[in-house]
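#struct-pred

JT: dropping the chains for the assembly here, can someone run the whole complex?
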Amino acid sequence: MGEFELIRKYFAAAPCAQGGEGIALGIGDDCALLALPVGEQLAVSTDTLVAGVHFADPCDPFLLGQRSLAVAVSDLAAMGANPLAFTLALTTPTVSADWLQRYAQGLNAMAQRCGIGLVGGDTTRGPLSLTLTVFGRVPSGQALTRGGAQPGDVLCVGGDLGNAAGALPLVLSQRTAPSAIAELLLAHYWSPQPQLALGLALRGKATSAMDISDGLLADSGHIAKASVVRLVIEQQRLPLSAQLLAFLGEQEAQSAALSGGDDYVLLFTLPPVELAPLLASGWPVKVIGRVEQGQGVVLVDHAGQDITPTNRGYQHFHEAP
Amino acid sequence: MGEFELIRKYFAAAPCAQGGEGIALGIGDDCALLALPVGEQLAVSTDTLVAGVHFADPCDPFLLGQRSLAVAVSDLAAMGANPLAFTLALTTPTVSADWLQRYAQGLNAMAQRCGIGLVGGDTTRGPLSLTLTVFGRVPSGQALTRGGAQPGDVLCVGGDLGNAAGALPLVLSQRTAPSAIAELLLAHYWSPQPQLALGLALRGKATSAMDISDGLLADSGHIAKASVVRLVIEQQRLPLSAQLLAFLGEQEAQSAALSGGDDYVLLFTLPPVELAPLLASGWPVKVIGRVEQGQGVVLVDHAGQDITPTNRGYQHFHEAP
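RK: done, full complex below.
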């Protein structure tokens, strides 16, 4: 038996590969088989993480296992889908039992938190990279898309912005921070929490939704374009953690919130009437702006002046050469 | 707009990305949405091809486009599934418009032949590799698996074996061959034809099935193990093309058929009573052996003597370091 066959057996024995509701056939045949309840559709998303591009190499394989799955599952949250299953395509230059074990433990931890099962994949030799394809269930016609924002809606996010971008100098060992600050920022970077429950709560309420992976300004542009509307973001409403503010100062923290990537919190639009019940139920929803007729995204200050940065392109870790 | 955003738009505009039956939402949102008819299950398979490991680099991007999809769709054929959709995760070190255009043309050509639509994926910078995840539909309970072969069944394949392995010295420019030989062998390597129609025809008839990707002996071992049976392969029944025989001679041709990879023809078991109707309908089915009680795979000569090679491991191109 080759070492890659051993890897396959290793993942097949992982706790998250032991099946579950909706998984009619798991790892081990030419295909896995998924079953959907009548009246539901399957949501599908694929994400690739490349070593040295999307994550530092070497890095802690447990944290990488958590992060690689969380990033992909966040797309299910953004559609208001219930996680069902995922496949993992792992390309690795060498086979290290210790690395694999810790990677699989991180993957398992996130899989159990999200309620999602590993049903297959591929294992190949080559430069380290990971491609995860995630599957979720959503009642037909109820998926949240980017295309329904209406003038008059409020623009909201599901939590603080910029923490993961703030963590980047720590991840890359370019700076240090007191542990009270570093712990929060690094947790956001390495263990983003897909906002699955919030996604479900937004079904039938949000007019559009997506998850923020490339930064608030860039991703807002996707909703503005798909919905053919203009989004106005109010700078003073950007939710910033005390730790991010202490670490970066106000100006840099705002920049991280606007253009930093890897937040993986939901960005969505709501008719104003839907807002109060969500807040009353305790959802961590923050209004950051509004939807108007027009196109594009503008950032305004407390006086309503347009202060949109001309360069929205954040040098995302994964845009590095 | 970054160059990777341009690639995404490029694929989104491809003919094979224009939706189809069962595709409720295609490229462009956080997830694609697939709809399944009542009573059907979704078959899912993921395959990765790494440059320099699974294919020579550089190579013709049109041929790579065809091959990368065919290899993945072959797993749907092996389950008796109808192709529905696929995602493409493309990692590339540089963005070449010419390369992308020709790759997409090859992908399109195979997608149209297989009736499958591109619904999403990811595009990232890094060492060249391709991960395709394919989705198919199959009536609940009718998928062909590796696990149902019964003693008394005949062991069959869906066509000639060893042609793709025979093509390898040509692909790697280690040898040359007359065009009448080279054309057939290279066609099997670069444009494998997923046996989708045969897979559908085998529903309710075959007791087990898979596609041959790692070589007949190795893949027969998977059916033997999953079905808890012994498979007996008769050497003189191995179907070999005249071109392969002319190129390699009988002994090497048999070796390519037994241990060469990349055939992508179906390997399956049938009760003998099911055989005649399939042959009468014109399916290219060849009996190569039988199923017995026991375990493992044995190769026998015309006198019934065990001539199983001790080293079954073929040095598959994708097992190269």
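JT: nice. Chain A has nine helices and twelve strands. Chain A has two domains: 3-139, 154-319.
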